[in-house]
Write a structure and sequence with these properties.
Order of helices and strands: HHHH
Radius of gyration: 15 Å
Number of helices: 4
Helix content: over 70%
Structural class: mainly alpha
Length: 91
């Protein structure tokens, strides 16, 4: 039972991180994701880390898939954040 909860938590974190990647603030669901970004700018990384830890504690057959999906989305966010912080600086 406990492993099912960890897998469900990992999937929930994966979905939240995925939807934070391409949310639209003008839609009806935009307020929630705006709240998540306002709470902490690095919320996708926090959710990703929580998702990876809970995936490792989850169901054995789903561990690798969930970890790989979390790492893929985290790499996308890392690329965006690095480009934003260092790529748009005008010298």
């Amino acid at each position: 039972m406990g492993r099912n909860i960890f897998s469900a938590l990992s999937i929930l974190c994966l979905l939240l991180t995925f939807f934070m990647f391409g949310y639209d603030s003008t839609k009806w669901y935009g307020g929630f994701f705006t709240f998540l970004y306002d709470a902490n700018m690095f919320m996708p990384f926090i959710l990703g880390a929580l998702g990876i830890v809970s995936a490792l504690l989850g169901i054995k057959g789903h561990r690798m898939v969930l970890v790989v999906l979390h790492l893929f989305i985290l790499l996308l966010f890392l690329g965006i954040y690095l480009k934003t912080f260092y790529g748009y600086n005008e010298s």
